[in-house]
Amino acid sequence: MDKDIKRYYKQLQHGGRSLAARIADAFALRLVFAAASYLWFRYNIENQVVVILLTATTTLIFMAALKLWNDISFDRFVQKESDRLLDTVLRERLLLLDEGEFLELCECVCKDLPGFENATLWCMQHSLPIDADDVLAAYRRARRQNAQFLAICSLSGCTQAASALLLRLPIRSEYISPDILLRFARETKEFSVGAQDVNAHIRSRQSVVHERRKQMQAEPFAPGRAKKYLVCALILAAASFITGYALYYRLLAGLCLMLAGTSFTLNQFAPIKAVEQ
Fold it and tell me: What is the pTM of this model?
């Protein structure tokens, strides 16, 4: 597995925690277990050398078992997340289809479902869940065609109001969920999605996150920040003469002056570097 892809799964599995935080957690867990083992063996065994050997052996066994458990849980998480991303990528691909192609797909799905062969089909190629207004529009079309059975296909969910309205319509109405559409499209070679598509989707999301992180890191030194830091330094310097904590205020004022100088320098020489490159 690619390092970037593995890093994505690792971070997602641990709730978005960074690599440094995960390393600190793992080190703390092993340290606590080793300390607990040492105290337990020391309480029951008098020989200090034996206590150290048993503590080291127990800790190594615990680390090996923990590594095995982490690998198993990671593989299960990757499989589960990959299946979810397969549906996500396939859903995006179906959303980008032409209206005629998506209609053909929905017609093929209805033909394979028992009882849906003669239904009036209403396709919703939307990213948002269908609401009551969408159900009413589908119902009016079915009435104009004198249909007795209405089938609504959608790539998104269905709101509670729309589901309740479907049950109250005077004609038989059914909602074909996105799971049915995705399952049928997954079995079609034309819409097949593989691991490469999932990896491309992950890399696109990571690039967006990296770009957003760069913007957040550059925000404190954006153009115009030097003046604000300078004003803040002057206010803190003035406040140092009327309070009993003069040293702290002046230290903060000096920090603001340093930030102002850094922001001014970065914005002053950035255009020159860009031209040289």
Answer: 0.63
